[in-house]
Amino acid sequence: MVWCGAVGAPARSHSNEVATAGQEFTTLVMAGRRGPQDDLAEATGSSHRALLDVCGVPMLVRVIRALRSSPSVGPITVSIDDEHALEGVSELAGVALHRSLASPSRSVLDFLDSRSAGEPVLVVTADHALLTPEMVEHFATASRASGADVQIALVEEALLRAAYPETTRTYLRFRREGFSGANLFAFRGERARRVAAFWVRAEQFRKRPWRLVSAFGPIALLLFLLRRLDLDAALERASRSIGATVRAVRMPFAEAAIDVDRRSDLELVTRILEERERRETS
To answer: Cα separation of 258 and 268, whole Å?
Structure first.
């Protein structure tokens, strides 16, 4: 189901907004509600977690600012379940909208189905309040260089723990290394839709990675459980199973893995932004 329009403006077509291959990404920002009840959003008086204020600025606005400052980003669309939630946010006036579906994976697949085959699409979550143009450009440049159908941004556990030992994250653990997701995804090839379709099936196992690995066969599961499968080998197996090439982009920014899932995350992100803003004004 596609519902494209703009905040405070009539619905408009995307036909003239195709990103130039190799230069710009059409970008989808995931801002829909997380289920029927979001305790964090409700506790702070927001209808959507994406609209939580961090240092006086809604997280979604921070993400949009970073994207608009990135040369690799073309047209930006916000995926949300209720267009009226954005009406009071002046910086989002005129932003194209996509009606989000029951889950992030289904929303992404629906958006890809509305685009031209092979059109490069960048996906980022709206709770990525620490996103910077440098992060976006690093990921976009690495994605273009990889030549893969889909790229996912990851941060090494060692890097994240060294910078922010207090943060609690979900890690995918492989041989000699663990990784946390950085909420940036690039879909570049005509076969990229296959990965999005697999994501729909596998999304329920996000917090149980062994179940996800088991989808690639018993040998892959055994290697994973024995910690003998490294990241690149795992993605190679995934690529063969899905029928599309999937590669990881290792992000050198610890903050790229810190989104806002719980109250402690919000407190940490607020502290990091306050320190960042003090450095910029000093």
So the answer is: 9
